[in-house]
Amino acid sequence: MCYDISFSTTIEMVTDYLPGLVLDPQLGLDYNMNRHFQIREEKSYPIIICHDGIRALTPLKWGIEVAPGIVSFNAQSERILNDKKSRWYRRRNSRCLIPVTGIYEHREIKGWKKKVPYYVKLKNRSLFCIPGLYSASQNSFALITRPGNDIMRQIHNSGDNPYRMPLFLADKQLEERWLASDLQEAEMEAILDYELPSENMEYYPVHTIRTQKERPDKKQKDEPFNWPDLPPLGKDSNELSLF
């Protein structure tokens, strides 16, 4: 599951990335900061939707209520077209893009009391978009995930639905096609099946992110942090008891 995303950019950079975006009047400029968004936050997140051929940047909350009291934050790519009884199949035409500068995922290491957070982003891209689905009636969205590639399986190695990752796409053209009103199911399936090669990602450990406290080194949440005795990826049997 993906529960943490980074938006350390400005609204202007998003509109430069996808020219012609219409800005929702409700969208404040308080997003222009180094933000770490979590699913439990009540604040809305800037999401790109397309309605009647017009692409707009609008604030939506993370998480779609799929049943009374049940909220889904992630939509599994495999169910959007292949499970015609699923809630995601019914929402397949309510597509959106989630602009991010990166995401966070946690790695479990045997013998460590707490998981180690990693920051993951696409190489050579300061801003990119993750496909999602949205609910107009709830003003909310869900981020699409898929089975993880080799690196993400080693990072996201425990917890709810382990070994998965967001649906990272290769380039902006694929992202824009996700919004296209003329997108056919065959092309949609190809996008949903896409697996980003591990070599196209940049990733590194960061300090604890789910806290309001300042890092001990005074750096931003998305900057690298050197954890003493951190074993390499794939070597998760370290028996040290840390933290």
TrEMBL record:
<dbReference type="Pfam" id="PF02586">
    <property type="entry name" value="SRAP"/>
</dbReference>
<keyword id="KW-0190">Covalent protein-DNA linkage</keyword>
<keyword id="KW-0645">Protease</keyword>
<dbReference type="GO" id="GO:0006508">
    <property type="term" value="P:proteolysis"/>
</dbReference>
<comment type="similarity">
    <text>Belongs to the SOS response-associated peptidase family.</text>
</comment>
<dbReference type="InterPro" id="IPR036590">
    <property type="entry name" value="SRAP-like"/>
</dbReference>
<dbReference type="GO" id="GO:0016829">
    <property type="term" value="F:lyase activity"/>
</dbReference>
<keyword id="KW-0238">DNA-binding</keyword>
<feature type="region of interest" description="Disordered">
    <location>
        <begin position="209"/>
        <end position="243"/>
    </location>
</feature>
<keyword id="KW-0378">Hydrolase</keyword>
<keyword id="KW-0227">DNA damage</keyword>
<dbReference type="GO" id="GO:0003697">
    <property type="term" value="F:single-stranded DNA binding"/>
</dbReference>
<dbReference type="GO" id="GO:0008233">
    <property type="term" value="F:peptidase activity"/>
</dbReference>
<dbReference type="InterPro" id="IPR003738">
    <property type="entry name" value="SRAP"/>
</dbReference>
<feature type="compositionally biased region" description="Basic and acidic residues">
    <location>
        <begin position="211"/>
        <end position="224"/>
    </location>
</feature>
<protein>
    <recommendedName>
        <fullName>Abasic site processing protein</fullName>
        <ecNumber>3.4.-.-</ecNumber>
    </recommendedName>
</protein>
<keyword id="KW-0456">Lyase</keyword>
<dbReference type="GO" id="GO:0106300">
    <property type="term" value="P:protein-DNA covalent cross-linking repair"/>
</dbReference>
